[in-house]
Structures are given as C-alpha cells and as structure tokens.
C-alpha cells in the first residue's frame, strides 16, 4: 500500500532504510519539514501521522504503509491559513521560521492529546478527560520542539490564543466565524 501524504497517494521507497523525513524532503520535495538535528532532539521534523505527532527523522517511511501523513504543506494554504498559522503571525511565534513547521504540527497534535485526556508531566489531576492547556502545560507539552531564536513566548501565546478561541466556540461562548 502507498503512503497518503497531504491527501496524495505516494509509493513507498524501494529502499526500506529511507527515513520519512528524507522521503518527504528529497523525493517529494516537501521542504517545509525541516532537518534540524537528525537525531530526534529538536522537533524541527515533526509531522502528523493521523492525529499523532512524530519525529520524521527517526521514522522509516515504510513504517507508515497505508497511513495518512500531514506535513506543514497540508495544514493550510497561503489564501487560507490554519488558525494556528495565523496566530503564529499575530503573536510573533517565529523569528527565523526554521522550527515553525514542526512547532505548528506538534501544537495541533498536542491540543488533540490534551483533549483526549493524555496527561503530561505537569498535569495535576490525572483523572481528567480533557486537560486545560495552562501556560505550564503548554510549555511542558511543547518542550520537544526547540526554537533556537527564542520565540517560545510568541509560540505559547499563539497556541493559547488559538486554543482559547476553539474552547469558547465549543462551549458556545463565541460563534464560529463564517
């Protein structure tokens, strides 16, 4: 079975040793996913497999046979940014921009994890079904994504702003924009 990358069927590489990151960048020319440390320490290569975030530098492409992979190129468009992408712009969540694609992919999955009741190291009440994303929760949950420029405060502000609006829409406090 092929991979599904950003909604497009892609054949598996002939060489089973090809990392998912190298397939995305070198074969598919999806260069939004960045090669940072190539050791799983920086998060620049974070992509989504289904709803989960993974480090594509540590994964072999063949591991994801038949699965849906979303890169930053599949998150939004120039004409219609994902709400989190727009929030990164509004809250100065980037400087050089190198880590931004991984930060955004990671944040999207991180919010889903919190809503699914997956605790973090700093979660106080482990019995919750949906963890509120406090400042400390966000920093802990995003700690695997490094920003060497120091834009972490803007990144956290962008995630908080996006999450707060979504929470308000879900509870009916704010009507969804048309």
In short, what is this structure?
This protein is of the alpha+beta class and 178 residues long. The protein has five helices and five strands; from the N terminus they run ββαβββαααα. A five-stranded mixed beta sheet has the order 2-1-5-3-4, with helices on one face.
β-strand amount: 5-15%
Task: Based on Cα principal axes, name the global outline.
Answer: globular
- N-to-C CA distance: 38 Å
Number of helical segments?
5
Keywords:
single chain, 178 residues, alpha+beta, Ubiquitin-like (UB roll), DNA polymerase, domain 1
Task: Give an overview of the whole structure.
There is one protein chain. The protein contains five helices and five strands. By secondary structure, it is α+β, with helices and mostly antiparallel strands. The protein has two domains: 72 residues, Roll (Ubiquitin-like (UB roll)), CATH 3.10.20.30; 89 residues, [2Fe-2S]-binding domain (DNA polymerase, domain 1). Strands 2-1-5-3-4 form a five-stranded mixed β-sheet, covered by helices on one side. Helix 2 crosses helix 5. The protein is globular. It starts with a strand and ends in a 7-residue tail after the last helix.
Task: Indicate the topology.
Elements: E1 3-5, E2 8-10, H1 20-27, E3 46-49, E4 52-55, E5 68-70, H2 83-90, H3 100-115, H4 135-141, H5 152-171
Parallel strand pairs: 1-5
Antiparallel strand pairs: 1-2, 3-4, 3-5
